[in-house]
Amino acid sequence: MNVGLVGIGNCTSSLVQGVAHYTAHPDAPGLTLPVCAGYAVSDVRFTAAFDVDAAKIGLDLAEAIWTGPNNATRFAEVPPLGVPVVEGVLSDGVGRRVGERITARGTADVEAIAAHLERTGTEVLVNFVPAGSQQASECYAEAALLAGCAFVNCIPSVIARSPHWVERFTAAGLPLLGDDLKSQFGATLVHRALVELLAANGVRLRNTYQLLAGGNMDFVNLQDPERLRTKQETKAGGLRGADGDTLLPPEQVHVGADYIPFLADRKLAVIRIEGEGFGGTPVEVDLRLNVDDSPSGAGNVLDAVRYLKFALDHGLAGVLDPVAARLMKAVPNPMGEGAAAAGLRELLALGRP
Ligand SMILES: NC(=O)c1ccc[n+]([C@@H]2O[C@H](COP(=O)([O-])OP(=O)(O)OC[C@H]3O[C@@H](n4cnc5c(N)ncnc54)[C@H](O)[C@@H]3O)[C@@H](O)[C@H]2O)c1
Q1: Domain 2-182+295-349 fold
Q2: Alpha-carbon dihedral angle through residues 188, 34, 23, 122, given to the nearest 10 degrees
Q3: What Å distances lie between residue 153 and 26, 71, 131, CA to CA?
Q4: Cβ pair 22, 75 in contact under 8 A
Q5: Contact present, 87 and 64 (Cβ < 8 Å)
Q6: Residue nearest to atom 43 of ligand 1 (CA)
Q7: Class in CATH terms, 187-293
Q8: Given this model, what pLDDT does residue 251 score?
Q9: Does residue 154 line the site of ligand 1, with CB under 6 A?
Q10: Which atom, in ligand 1's list, is nearest to the CA of 231?
Q11: What stretches in the chain show pLDDT beneath 70?
Q12: 268 C-alpha to center of ligand 1: Å?
């Protein structure tokens, strides 16, 4: 399947490395699904790449992923891919904090992006621009529509939650997935599981916080309060119960993010949950989680592109709700883990003879 990438930052680096790594070693640990929706990792082929960082534009994708300020862990060697990084649409992609660290250049327009997607035969476009880039995300979604590509919105901008975009992708017969990618084993997953477990066992939840720290460009970007706000919304919305209901009102959920340069791509999450148990007695949970930030997102996006290719093969359009519930933090129709798993089984049955 032919996959296009928008934003050649740390997450894209881990994704590109992951495809090289698991193609060469399909049994290596860490991969959720060696075969997903009928596709192996080796079926994923990168065909287009867009960025606005002058240092990355013009480089082969395999070289651009190692170009600063990227600092994701190097866990695989990637041979030249023959995919040049093409200048994208700048729009609101680069905020003040990121703008201080890169030379941004992005004079392309939506039509030029769509023409490149068509020329390269791209089928699925993955959006990995910095959090808070609503307009830039819309430009790439528009280009995907024009070029007849499925679209995965891995960032907190509102695309798959917008009836406007869902209607347009559905009308065009194209699948759409979003918003804001979940990590394989990240803070949102653990936080949600704990909140769900406490509620299911009769503990009345009072409040909770999730404090994050990291030293990559995502955390540089999140030092801008407006950009952090979009992340806070999708994270708070991610704390849902088995029936898809929100378990805590948003004002009782605090999400913070700190930039600590020497952490590089390591992410620290400190989670605290407070509640009332039997007799109104206090129940408190404190947890500290340490993961590599970007590889932990890459596994899920590898599944996302394979599900979307499956959807294209079977003429499925719009948001695939069970896939979205499984892989994304903020979705148009939230559902619990059980319902999502059942929905996924039903969906994949379409592929059986
Ligand atoms: N595990 C994770 O790391 C994870 C999980 C969920 C969501 N996300 C989201 O994924 C996104 C990417 O994360 P990252 O760590 O790779 O960030 P990053 O800052 O390393 O990479 C972003 C890239 O996008 C480029 N860019 C900026 N504006 C652009 C534009 N208009 N067009 C094309 N390219 C543009 C930047 O130059 C940079 O190369 C962020 O929004 C982040 O919140 C990450």
Answers
A1: Rossmann fold (3.40.50)
A2: -70
A3: 26, 22, 11
A4: no
A5: no
A6: 131
A7: alpha beta
A8: 84
A9: yes
A10: 43
A11: 238, 240-246, 353
A12: 18
